[in-house]
Amino acid sequence: MSETIQVITSEFVKLNVSNSSNDVVSFEKKFDKKLTIGELKSKLEVLTGGNKGTMQLELYSGSKLICKIDNDDAYFGSYPIDDNMRLHVIDNIISFDQDVDKFELTETQYENRQDSVRSFLKRNRLGKYNDEEMKQLELKKQEAEKRELERLEKITVGSRCKVTTTGHPTRLGTVMYKGELDGKKGLFVGVKFDEPLGINDGSANGKKYFECQPKYGSFVLPSAVEIGDFPEEEIDFDDEI
Question: Locate the CAP-Gly domain: which residues (predicted)?
Answer without folding.
Answer: 179-221
